[in-house]
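Preliminary data (for renewal application), adenosine-5'-[phenylalaninyl-phosphate] complex.
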Amino acid sequence: MIDDIRSACDEALAAVASAHLDVVDQLHAELLGKRSHLSGMKAKLGSLDAEERRVAGSALNQAMASVSAAIDERRAQAQRAALEARIDAERLDLTEAPPVGRRGHLHLVTQAWEQLEDVFVGLGFTVAEGPEVETDWYNFEALNMGEGHPARGEFDTLFVGRSDNELPGESGILLRTHTSPVQIRAMLAQEPPIHIVAPGRVFRRDTPDATHMPVFHQIEGLVVDRDITMADLAGTIEAFTRAFFGEEFTSRLRPSYFPFTEPSAEFDVRRPDGSWLELGGCGMVHPEVLRAGGLDPEQWSGFAFGFGIDRMAVMRHGVSDIRDMYVNDIRFIEQF
Ligand code: FA5
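Predicted structure:
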């Protein structure tokens, strides 16, 4: 009998060890339930004599206890395995695959912005800044574009803070259409001599095309001192073109009109392929603008310029469409 119990126990333990984790819950009924081999043996105990029954009964109890413990252990194993499988399935891989040959870098416009600052700082300028949300006075009025001035129409202005019963533009709060208001802020903030550049974001209701974006960037320059002439402006622009674009680019100044400069010019740069692109406007600061900045035009003169940074960025890299810089196409971005 003892041998039978031992072999039934070994059989049951082997069944537990090899049972598939899915069927663990059925093991108890199968190996220890009423119809199990071990229970069947229990029924036979009655036919033994007292001493044999005591020994066999105790062996049987031990066997059943060890099978039961083995089933519990197998169940715990099954539960751990299920949990691990779930964790594995739900795990979020937050590690970034090491980019093979693909490293992040600053946006093309940010690169150009920083290089422009470096070039102008090298030419003796300091960097100034002004707010993107401006008042009508700084953006237009102080720049010699009073109410009703026809040149205002050229800047498709985005107004902010307009209440329902105001006419467009009446609030006088707007998104700056150019960086030129920083000229006024600089003149009001410091005594000449002034040598500043002011890079920043500007806004116009322009429809995107190959050379226009509704949100773009300019860098303003302002020099105010005694006896500043157009020759100083031309010399600065020439030095800048060489330093920023390199020897294979040349620039020209074309007569133009801006209400805040007199005389005014447009600044074009010639690409190595011979084509020209308008990059900015410039000129001698208009006497009315010096006055708005609190300076006496009899004593002080100056020049100013405002260049489009986005156009500079595409120009330098030989990109033909300014919109390409803003679509976040990795095939485009990774070239720079
Ligand atoms: C101005 O904004 C003047 N404030 C520039 C200036 C400053 C003149 C100081 C005189 C003295 P303009 O509107 O032409 O001028 O814009 C200047 C440059 O910004 C353009 O030459 C162009 O390079 C860039 N630009 C203008 N509109 C856009 C646009 N929608 N998208 C991208 N770049 C633009």
